[in-house]
Amino acid sequence: MRFQFVLGEVFSGLRRNTTMVVAVVLVTFVSLTFVGAAALLQAQIGKLKDDWYDLVEVSVFLCPEGSVAPTCATGEATDDQVEAVRKIIDTELSTEVSKVYFESKERAFEAFSERYPDGYQGTQLTADDMQASLRLKLTDAEQFAVVSDVLSGRDGVEIVEDQRAVFEPLFRTLNVATLLAAGLAGVMLLAAVLLITTTIRLSAVSRRKETEIMRLVGASNLFIQLPFLLEGALAAVLGSLLAGGGLWLAVRFMVSDWLERSVDWVAYVSEVDVLRVAPLLVIMAVALAALSSFFTLNRYTRI
Amino acid sequence: MIRFENVSKVYARGARPALDQVSVDVERGEFVFLVGASGSGKSTFLSLVLREQRPTRGRVYVAGRDVANLSGWRVPTLRRQLGVVFQDFRLLQNKTVHENVAFALQVIGKPRHVIRDTVPEVLDMVGLAGKGKRMPTELSGGEQQRAAIARAIVNRPQILLADEPTGNLDPTTSLGIMRLLDRINRTGTTVVMATHDDEIVNEMRRRVVELSDGVVVRDEARGGYGEREAILPHVGASPVLDAPGSGTRAPVQIVREV
Predict the structure, then answer these.
(1) Which chain B residues have a beta carbon less than 8 Å from that of A214?
(2) pLDDT per residue over B109-154, tens digit each?
(3) Cβ neighbour number for residue B244 with a 10 Å cutoff
(4) Where in chain B is the domain with CATH 3.40.50.300?
(5) Can you give the pTM of this predicted structure?
(6) Are B79 and B50 spatial neighbours (Cβ–Cβ below 8 Å)?
(7) B82 and chain A: CB distance < 8 Å anywhere?
(8) Topology of the domain comprising A56-163
(9) Is 3.40.50.300 the CATH number for B1-81+159-258?
(10) Residue B65 gets which letter from DSSP?
(11) Beta-carbon contacts below 8 Å between A and B
(12) ipTM of the modeled complex
C-alpha cells in the first residue's frame, strides 16, 4: 500500500513536471559524461604507464642483425659488448642510473605477444624480429643527456632513447584534457544541483496542498518527502545511465573500432573500463540528487 | 485533553503578543467555542495545539503530551490524534470525495482493506453516502465541508479542531454542519471550534472561551457569543454590520439527535 502510493505520487510528480525533469536528466547526462570522460582519460594514462612508463625511462637498444648504424658494424650485439656496456653503466653512470634491466629478444617477444596475441598487422612475428635492449631507470630523469652522451657511440649500442620524451607530451595532453573535462564536469554538476533543487522546489510548490494535508493528518516526514527524493533521484539516475551509455558508445566506436585500428601500438581503454566507471556515475547521481533534495526539502516541506 | 498553562506567543520581537499568559483547560469530550475578534489569538491557539508553532513561554499539553517540547519526529504521532477542519475546506480538487478521505489514511500507511471499509462508513456518517465518486467542485459548500469533516475524523481522532467551519456557509447549511459536529462530539471526541457565528454559539449553549488581544477575557460553561460590540469594539455601529437582515435573522434551532 505504502509503496504503491509513494510510487504513484512519484510518477504523478514526474508527469506534472515533465520539462524540468527532462532538463535534469539532460544536465546530469552531460555533466556525468564529463566526469566519466575524465575518469577514462586517467584510466588511459594508467594503462600507458603500466605498460611502459614505470618500467623504463631510458632504453638502450642493442644492435640487431642487419643494422646500418656505424656502431653495429660487427652485426648483432655480442654478449661481450653487452657486458662492456653494463660495466660502463656500473662504473661511470653509477650515480645517474639506479636500476638496469636486460630485456632479451625472447622477453621482448613475450611482452609483445601479450599485447598483440593475434600478430602485428596481420604478420606473425618471432623472437628474432625483436630487439634486445638494456632498460635503465634513472635516479633523476633529467639526467638523460648525460646518460645518452656516455652510452651513444659504444660498440653494440644502436641507439639510446628517452622513453619519457616520447610519452611526456602525451601524458601532458591527457592530463590537460582530464583537467578540462573535470572542470567542465564541475560546472555542469553545479548546474545539475541547482536544477534539481529548482525542480524539487517547483514540485513541492505544485503539491503544496497535498503536503499541507499530509502534515496535518500526521504523515511522517519521510513519507512526505520520499516522493520528492525519489523524483530527483530517478531523474538523476536516468541521466547517469545515459552518460554511461554515451561513454560506452564513444569508447566502442571511437576507441575500439577506430583509434585502436589506426594507432595500434598503444593499449587503450575498453568497454570494460566504461563498465567499471558507470556504477560510480550512478552512485554520484544518487548522491547528487539526495544532497540537493535534502537541503531543498528541509526548507520547503518542514513539519 | 488540552491544557494551556500561562502560554504566551510572540511572533516578532517587540511586537504585541498574539497570546498573553493564556491558561485554558479543556476536558475530554468537551465542546468548546473559541470566540473573539480577528487577531484576538484564536488561530494562534489552534496552531499551538497542532504544534505548527511552539509557545514563546508556558506549556501546552495535548492528549497528555507536552507539545512545546515535543521533538519533530514525534509530531506526526500527535497529529494523528487530531482532526482539523478549515473555513476553506481544503479538499484536493483533483481527487474525488472518496479519494480525499482515503488520502488521509493512505499517507499514514493504513492498509488498503482498512481504507476500503472505513471511508464509506465515515462518508455515510457525515451524510455523503453515495457521493464518494463526486469531485469536490460538484458538491455544494456544505457538502464540501462535510467531506472535509469526514477526512478529519476518518482516523478517529480524540480531538477535532475546527477553524471557522461555517464561515463560508449560509445559516441553514451551517446548522447542518453544527449538528454533525455535535454528533461527533457525542461519540466522545473533544471539539474545539473557533467561530464568529454568534447565532450558533448562542443556540448551542456550550462552553465559550473568549479571547481579546491574546488574553482570555471570558470562560463560561454554558455561554453565549456575548455582546457583539464588546467583541468587535473598534467597528462600533457600522452601516454594514447593522444593515437590514444581518441582525434580524431567525434564530437557528439546533435539534439534538440521539
Answers:
(1) 107
(2) 889 999 999 999 999 999 999 999 999 999 999 999 999 999 999 9
(3) 6
(4) 1-81+159-258
(5) 0.69
(6) yes
(7) yes
(8) Alpha-Beta Plaits (3.30.70)
(9) yes
(10) E
(11) 58
(12) 0.81
